[in-house]
Fold this sequence. Notes:
Blueprint: H1 2-26, H2 38-63, H3 66-90, H4 96-104, H5 107-112, H6 116-138, H7 147-165, H8 176-187, E1 192-193, E2 201-202, E3 207-214, E4 241-244, E5 247-248, H9 254-261, E6 274-275, H10 278-284, E7 288-293, H11 299-305, E8 310-313, E9 342-347, H12 380-406, E10 411-418, E11 423-424, E12 430-431, E13 444-448, H13 450-455, H14 459-464, E14 471-472, H15 475-483, E15 486-487
Parallel strand pairs: 1-6, 3-9, 3-10, 5-14, 7-8, 7-9
Antiparallel strand pairs: 2-15, 4-13, 10-13, 11-12
Amino acid sequence: MEKLKKYKEEVIFHIGLNIIFSVFITLSPYTHIPFGGLKGFLFYLVHFLVLQFTVFGCIYILSLIKKVFLILFPVIFLILSGISFWVYTQDISINSGIIQVILESNFDIAIDIINFHFLAYLFFGLIIVLFWILKFKKYRISSVKSPIFFLSLLSFLTFFLVEKYKFGTLKRKLPYSVYFATKEFFKTDKVSLKKVSQNVYSKAKDVNIVFVLGESVRSDHLAVNGYNKNTTPLLAKQSNLVSFTNVYTSLTYTAISLPQILTDKSLVHTTTNEFTSVYSVLNSSGFNTIWIGNQSLEKSYEEIVKTNNSVKIIDEFHSVLSFKKLKDLELLASFNLKNKNTITTLHMIGSHWYYNSRYDKSFEKFTPVTTSKHVGLSTKNQLINSYNNTILYLDFFLNKLIEDIKKSDQKTVVIYLSDHGETLGEEGKWFHAQDHKSSKNPAMLVWSSDSYLEENPNFIKNLTSKRNDSISTDFLFHSILHLAKVKNFDYNLDLSIFKQ
Length: 500
């Protein structure tokens, strides 16, 4: 009877501890998810229970060593609670970019985000967990001989089985996301950049290049490219605009596509591990280089971006997974033309999943749309409609950008290129990072101002003749340097789309 009583006390202790842990930490990522009705709620309830079951195993294994547990568990709990507070209140998604922001932020910035509610949350959580683990000292019976130990081993097995079935199902949720995001941050190699000779110069005069870097937009869902739904009603009315239908990339997610797009790294002919940032070349040639982004910088391309003279991230603490991420129109509030040679890069959140978060309700033209983040609860038609609404928002964004530029007499060329495409149910696949042609065919458009065309009258004609050509994303580096009339730097003119 005494042994049974001890097991009962052990069960009560760990149930209580897991309830505290789940309320303060594990539950936080689920509070912002659109469930989409009862089915969606039940799906995520099961997901949460499975996640917490695997967390229980970690806690139990740690509790086997009493002194380590009493010191380490409160520290871990406090750190995770501090992170979960921002997940609860701001829908922060924990990835390597957020870990970088946390680890590399200046002390004054860190202090600035600390408020009374944050401190109260930490204090309240710490008091509760310390009170509860004091019971652990009194009822210490965690043991490898306990039946609960074998249940904890089952929870470990559950974690690996779930992750093997679908990668990221549990790893991308608290508390695991902190560990795996930190691991990814320290594992990811930064690109090695070459220095550029100071003898480089530009023959361009007062030209503004606006490079709009899109996200997850596939070429064949633009109505200007022949898509059967009118996703680009505003761009279709723009003169001086050419849309390219057959751009190719084999790199189907941002972390690997951007280091190639923004440097002279080739998709096929790479014989070195050192590359040249397009911005470094332009800086040396006298161009002003500006980056305005709506995505947190990832380690794989951060150094390239920082070769710009100016870098501004408008919503640094919200990742692409956040449901509270700022809409891309906010980028334009920080954009203005210059009266000297300038390249401004606008990095969009674009059409990244969850699609409904990327546009305002007024852009919900194609219906019905998804109502749940869980793909399995939406029809293919709903998912595609939501995706097409992001293209409609892109149409509005680019059209507004062009109309704003028209108010100036600055010579301007706008280049829009998505980092990769998106798979929409083909062969049962969804989203990007997929080995499917739909993920490898990003959208690309070029627009030029009348003032630029006055000096380059055959510009649109030359581009139109190439709009259906097969072009790899290698083109961008060489095309921009050609457009900027860069001299004393060896780039491949044959890869430029602006070559006559």
